[in-house]
Amino acid sequence: MSEPIAAIATGLVPAGIGILRLSGDGALALAERVFRPFRGAPMGQRPDRELVYGALVDQRGETLDLCLCTVSRGPHSYTGEDCAEFQCHGSPMVLRLGLEALFAAGARQAGAGEFTRRAFLNGRMDLVQAEAVIDLIHAESALAARNAAGQLGGAILRRTDAIYEALREISSHYHAVVDFPDEDVEDFTLSAYASSLRNAETELARLEASFGRRNVISGGVPTAIVGRPNAGKSSLLNALLGYERAIVTEVPGTTRDTIAERCQLGGTLLRLIDTAGLRETADAVERIGVERSRAAMAEAELVLLLCDGSGPFTEEDAALLSEAEAAAPTLLLRSKCDLPQAVWPEAEAGRALPLSAKTGAGLDALTEAVEKLLPPPETRVAGEILTIARQAEAVGRARESVAAAREAIEQGFPPDAVLTEVEAAMGALGELSGRSVRADVTEQIFARFCVGK
Fold it and tell me: Strand order of the sheet with strand 35-37?
């Protein structure tokens, strides 16, 4: 049994609804002290998940709010413990007073992620699902939300559990033969498991590779907006964001440093990096900005190269195009298409997307081009994209150990050498789900959470 904890589960800004959450030993009795139904039995006698209308009161019995209350008994609750939730009017003051009433009744303040931590410790979810909770809260794109929801539904563990069980079969068969030589146990033949290990290695490699596409759905694809001074880079950033984030003037070299903002472009989340104009300069400050711009381009996964369409396509533009294409997939944008256009070489004119940040012309075509260049990762089931380095590292170690076990079989090593790698792979997969994770790892994971979740 655990002490009761309480927290405000919604943001402290005025809203239509605000939620107080309560969990732990004696939660139902504690709920009865602060909530008085207008009709029927007290909350301790109500069925699970029934919404009851009544009054939320303080320790003196004075009404704080008229709200709804529901209870869920363990183990069939979010945390696996007895729980209660109060759906109040979303006044920050009402929520604070309600929380104080819960404290006065015997609860303590919940720590960050403590409700989800208890769900994990009580077996209501595995560690990947727990991490998916915070990913879902912070999702900034539809793809990120669907992937996190799929992980919360167990998509990752359904794949890795099948591998874990195949490895456990190998291990248990080996130990049965060794530990019970007089029993009628089928002989342990390594070659019989080579195919199973190859399949496991393939599945783990595919899962590990998905981590490389995480930015497409979660962190935002690093996208450098580059070009010569006054090509319209900051204007494009502002147009994509929908507000004046960067200073725009007709004076070349206005932007002296990189500016980074996230932007949803169609179904793709981009981390846009507006850079200083690329040119040779004697100005020491501007030169630093140019160096940072080149560094941003080198680290980008997508480059938007703007060239002023109202002027000629210069040798400098051609050099920048070559540099950008060497760094990352590049879209050539012919900016300022609302102005009279200069004559460009046929090849560059044919591949360039005309664009006007001033009028918005060409933004839809840019969106389509980005989506074609950065298609979402292909998965059989929503949620099969690894987005957290800890998960990818555990899967990678499991894959390496499975590969080592397969190679040991092929090279004729004795069974105990194979089993060492098989059990190492099982340990790595155990860390992924939380079967064998260290306490300090769980501390780090739940430190990402907000209070009330």
Answer: 35-37, 52-57, 63-72, 83-90, 15-23, 5-8, 108-109
How far, in Å, CA of 349 to CA of 5, rounded?
64
> Which residue reads 């727990």 in tokens?
130
CA atoms within 13 A on the CB side of 122: 20
* Each residue's pLDDT tens digit, 47-94: 999 999 999 999 999 999 999 999 999 999 999 999 999 999 999 999
Topology at the third CATH level for domain 126-219+387-453: Four Helix Bundle (Hemerythrin (Met), subunit A) (1.20.120)
pTM for the full predicted model: 0.72
* Phi-psi sector, 361: left (phi>0), alpha (psi -120 to 50), beta: beta
Q: Which residue has the tokens 């079989």?
A: 409
With a CB cutoff of 8 Å and minimum separation 6, the contacts of 444 are none
**Cα separation values, 6 from 32, 77, 114, 169, 198, Å:** 14, 15, 10, 44, 49
pLDDT value at residue 140: 75
Three-state DSSP at 344 gives coil
Query: How many helices (H) and strands (E) are present in the chain, helices listed first?
Result: 16, 13
> Which residue did the predictor score with more confidence, 351 or 414?
351
Architecture of domain 226-371: 3-Layer(aba) Sandwich (3.40)
Domain ranges (residues) in the chain:
5-110, 126-219+387-453, 226-371
Q: 3-class secondary structure for 230-268?
A: CCCHHHHHHHHHCCCCCCCCCCCCCCCCCEEEEEEECCE
d(CA 21, CA 453): 9
| 319's tokens | 């050099």
Q: What is the pLDDT of residues 391-418, one digit of tens each?
A: 999 999 999 999 998 888 888 887 778 8
Domain 5-110 has CATH 3.30.1360.120: yes
